[in-house]
Design goal:
With 137 residues, the chain is mainly α. The protein has a domain at 55-131. It has 4 helices and no strands. The protein has helices spanning 13-28, 44-51, 59-88, 93-116. Helix 3 packs antiparallel against helix 4. Mean pLDDT is 74; it is low at 1-5. One of its GO terms (cellular component) is gas vesicle. This is Gas vesicle protein. Belongs to the gas vesicle GvpK family. Keywords: Gas vesicle. Pfam families: GvpK (PF05121).
Length: 137
């Protein structure tokens, strides 16, 4: 795919156009009406229902577990980005100190929330099957 770029375009404008064109092509492959989708095979939905645990007594804990998993993933990503910026020398010493303190406080708060709901940090690590665990050990 060749795109002609205007020198006055902002950086990555040509890449944005390519992504937009790819998304348009992908959406054009979707069926226009729901009835065009193949009906599910018999018995297919029962397996999924058996795998899902929909116990009303644990819904709150499961929802908290999901939210904490997402927050922990974001915390780890921010920590990696912060370490990268420190290694690059982009931050002043005061900024490094403030960033480190903030990340430590966030980690402590995550541990408190896990304790409150009877979870461990290991409980937050989702198994993604062939991709492995969501969070690094």
């Amino acid at each position: 795919m060749t795109t002609v770029t205007n020198p006055s375009d902002p950086p990555y404008a040509d890449r944005r156009r390519e992504v937009a064109e790819a998304a348009t092509r992908a959406f054009s492959l979707l069926p226009a009406r729901p009835e065009e989708v193949a009906p599910p095979r018999a018995g297919r939905g029962r397996g999924a229902a058996r795998r899902l645990r929909t116990d009303p007594d644990t819904v709150e804990r499961d929802l908290v577990k999901l939210v904490l998993t997402i927050v922990e993933l974001l915390r780890q990503l921010m920590e990696r980005q912060a370490l990268h910026r420190v290694d690059q020398g982009d931050l002043t010493e005061a900024q490094e100190e403030r960033l480190g303190l903030t990340l430590m406080i966030l980690h402590d708060r995550m541990a408190e929330l896990c304790d409150r709901y009877g979870l461990t940090m290991a409980d937050l690590n989702l198994d993604l099957g062939p991709l492995g665990p969501l969070l690094p050990p």
